[in-house]
Structures are given as structure tokens and as C-alpha cells.
Amino acid sequence: MTGTLTIAGIGPGDEAMVTPEVSAALAAATDILGYAPYVERVRPRTGAALHPSDNRMELQRAGEALRLASEGHHVVVVSSGDPGVFAMASAVFEALEDSPEWQALPIRVLPGVTAMLAAAARVGAPLGHDFCAINLSDNLKPWPTIEKRLRLAVEADFAIAMYNPRSASRPEGFARALKVLSEAGCDERIVIFARALTTPEEKIETVMLREARPEMADMRTLVIVGNSATRRVGDWVYAPRHVR
Amino acid sequence: MTGTLTIAGIGPGDEAMVTPEVSAALAAATDILGYAPYVERVRPRTGAALHPSDNRMELQRAGEALRLASEGHHVVVVSSGDPGVFAMASAVFEALEDSPEWQALPIRVLPGVTAMLAAAARVGAPLGHDFCAINLSDNLKPWPTIEKRLRLAVEADFAIAMYNPRSASRPEGFARALKVLSEAGCDERIVIFARALTTPEEKIETVMLREARPEMADMRTLVIVGNSATRRVGDWVYAPRHVR
Predict the structure, then answer these.
(1) Is B174 within 8 Å of chain A by CB?
(2) Is the CB of residue A204 less than 8 Å away from at least one CB of chain B?
(3) Which of A37, A41, A104, B205 has the most CB atoms around its CB within 10 Å?
(4) Cβ of A212 under 8 Å from any chain B Cβ?
(5) Chain-centre distance of CA A187, in angstroms?
(6) How many Cα atoms are found within 13 Å in the side-chain-facing hemisphere of B184?
């Protein structure tokens, strides 16, 4: 086995946020796999064979990547943002668990700038104090688990980064999440909607939770709910470092 | 006012993880401020005047950076990892709140690869499911708040990234954190100690929580506690995407 598998984070969108080690991996790849829009993003960086696939195909894609690497290819699986945050790395290790014959393959995970860090940077520092990250998709976990985690996150007074808040196939969940947060006493918290971050279509809105509407989010939006101390200074939003 | 202030994340240590936009900002700076070891790291990248300072000097450093920018300098404040995660961005906005005369200054925050993402990538994908990040330093918040957040994080079944677990001036806190987690039923959880990530001194240990000792962490260590489903596959550790 002389192939390799690299799981690489290509950041939120702006090429200036792709790390040099990820750029080097893309340039050296023989095969690149990933959700089609992410594969399209890296096309100019590589002469590799491109294997785009649909979303929700994560496990099949991971298995295909392992198979190609086992046949001697130098495979890169691309994820938007960071591959370890609600992205392809877990899917690859899940596939590896099902296929012990591939566990000796040389695998590397290359981190990237995940969406919540890029969103936070655009508005100030809303993740400057303790925070959590919750995937709102209920494809892979029951909705009551999501609600419970939101309530506990409020009780802990974490800022809350919400990934995958809303999609065409799951239009209802985000409205329920906003309701849970409102019932937990968050109406006066600052909420940031960051869509298509660092791309030409970027749109960022900052509102109070009581003003937030489900339609403000779609599948390209990252939502951050501030903690109880998160405040504005000028055009910026930040979480104070102190708890008094 | 023609000066600028950029708050830049220089990643965990490896130069191959510094984003191109941060490299460009460092190359264009007239003045670079930061904790001395981080300023030393960027010395080869810049001809700027270097202003190293001690840790715990964050607010003074932020004020100095704003003052230099207000006088026309192109100032970069460097943080290890990401500047928005327990780092300089919040301190700058705190200083800005105290000095409204500087609120019109052009400020940019440039994200970076924060330590928990680099640590996760080294061992697999322990942050592949919902997680939280807690700063264990009690310089800026009371210890009971930290304990409460740890307990709620366990109840939510988040993986837990712990920043600044232990320092010479705070040798006791991390032992207390491990005790809280043990009492909360986490003895059989996987814990990752990632020290001096991506540097030549990197050392990574993965143990069960019941085997974890306070001395395994110091001020250069990032600790990740897995969630209840986090598992090993071969040499890797990952959080399954599903909750069943």
C-alpha cells in the first residue's frame, strides 16, 4: 500500500484563508473527492482527477476515498471550513471502522478555518468567552437531543454557534430552535446570521433574538447566538473576557 | 486617521498553518504587538517594529495597538491560534469600548486555526459531533462558573475542549476539573492531551479520564474530553456523527 488519504479543510470560501499545507496537498493529489461545490472550488488548484458527489453521501464518499488510497492513489477529501467540525473526518473514521483492512493506510487530517471562526472574525469577537457548537441538522440525531443541548447551553451561558440551521428538506427545525431559545430567556441576546461567508455573496445580519426570523437562515448560513454578556461597541459585537 | 489595526491568528505553531491573508498582513505591518513568544514566531516574516509584551498584559497591549493605529501606523496584533478564541480580539474591543474616540479606526480580525482544531486533526475527529470550548483560567471568571459549565457540558454530552488547563500560577484548577468530570460520570471517557501542537516539541497522549493526571497538562497543553460515544478506530479517535 503506497497510497495516502488526506482529509483537508478548505476554509469558508476565500482562497486567502486556505492554509499552505492544504494548498500543497491539493497540488500533490491524484484524486480529489468531496461535495460537488467544494470540489469545484479547488479545481483551479490541481491537476487531479475530480470526484464530486452529492451531500448526504458522506459515508459512500469516505469508502470510495479509502478504496482509491488502498489502490495507491494520493487522495484528498475536501471539506468546507475544517474537516473535523460536522464534516468529512468523522465519516472517514466511521468507514475505516467498518473496513479494518484499510486501517494501516497513511491518513492525515489537515485543519482549516471553520465557519464559526470566520463569522466571529467578521463581526468582532462573539466567541471570546466560553462557547459551544451545535449541528442543527436532525438527519443524524433526534430532535429532542438538539433541544436539550440548546437549553443546557443557555443554562451554561455559552455563546452558541449553530451549524446547518436550515435546509429545504428541514425547514422547521430552526424555527423550533429559536422558540426554545426564546423560552429559555434569550430574547435580548444578540444573534448573528452569517451567510456565504468570505464569498462575493456574503451577507451578515446582527439582530436581537426576539427579532430573528427563521427565513434569515438557509443552508449556507452560520448562526451565532451571543451569551448573556455579549455586547456591541461601535459596529462590532464581542463577548467580554470577564464574568463578574 | 489613516492607520489600521489588524488582529491576526497565527495558528498553533506550524508555519504551514498560517493563512495567506495573515502572512500578507504581517508582511505589510509597520508594528507588531503580542505576547513575546508569538511576536518572536513572526519575526522572520516582517520588517515591522516588534512590540513584545508579557501575558496578562492583554488590555494594555490592546490600548497601545489602538493608539499606534490612531497615529497612522499599520498595526498587527498577533494571537496564537485564532484571535477570537480566548485571545486578543475580545481585549481589543474591550479597550475600544473604553476609548470611543478610536471607534472609527479601520479594524480587521483575521481568523486562524485554533488549538482545538489542530489537536482534533492530529488524533482523528473528536470534535465531529456537538462540542464546547471552555477556558479553564480563573483569572477572569470565578471557579464555580467553570465547574457549573463542566457539569452542564457533560449533561449535554458535548465533547469538551479545555483551553489554558494549568499554569504555574494556577496549579490546582485542572485537578479540580478532572474531579468534577469524574464525579459527573466521565471516568470511561477518552481524554486527549495535546502539548506544543504542530511544533518540534509536540507531544500527544490519549488516555481514559480515570487515568488522567493533572501533571499531564501545562500552559502549552490543549485538552479534549470526548463525548460518551467517542471511540477509537486503529490509532485514531473520533466522535460518531450519529446519536441513536
Answers:
(1) no
(2) no
(3) A41
(4) no
(5) 25
(6) 24
Indicate yes or no: CB of A90 within 8 angstroms of CB of B125. yes
| Other C-beta atoms lying within 10 Å of the C-beta of residue B235 | 11
Q: Do B155 and A158 touch (CB under 8 A)?
A: no
Residue B94: φ, ψ to 5°: -65, -45
Is the pLDDT at B228 greater than 70? The verdict is yes
CB atoms within 10 A of CB B49: 13
Buried b (16+ CB within 10 A) or exposed e, B89-120: bbbbbbbbbeeeebeebebebbbbbbbbbbbb
Q: Looking at chain A, how many residues does it have?
A: 244
pLDDT, averaged across chain A: 96
Query: Is the model's pLDDT at B24 over the cut of 60?
Result: yes
CB A105 within 8 A of CB A66: yes
Give B43-101 pLDDT, tens digit per residue. Answer: 999 999 999 999 889 999 999 999 999 999 999 999 999 999 999 999 999 999 999 99
Binning pLDDT at 50, 70 and 90, where does residue B1 land? low
ipTM of the complex: 0.97
Contact B156 A148 (CB under 8 A): yes
Residues of A in contact with B192 (CB under 8 A): none
Given a cut of 60, whether residue A220 has pLDDT beyond it is: yes
User: Considering only CB atoms, which chain A residues are within 8 Å of B134?
Assistant: 130
Grid coordinates representing A29 are 493529489
- Check whether A1 has a pLDDT greater than 90: no
| Alpha-carbon gap, residue A103 to B25, rounded angstroms | 41
pLDDT digits (tens, 9 = 90+) for B191-224: 999 999 999 999 999 999 999 999 999 999 999 9
Min distance A50 CA to chain B CA atoms (Å): 24
Buried b (16+ CB within 10 A) or exposed e, A13-44: bbbebbbebbbebbeebbbbbbbeebbebbee
- Which chain A positions have a beta carbon within 8 Å of B96's beta carbon? 233-234, 236
B238 — contact with chain A (CB < 8 Å)? yes
Residues 18-47 of B with CB under 8 A from A: 18-21, 24
Which residue of chain A comes nearest to B10, CA vs CA? A19
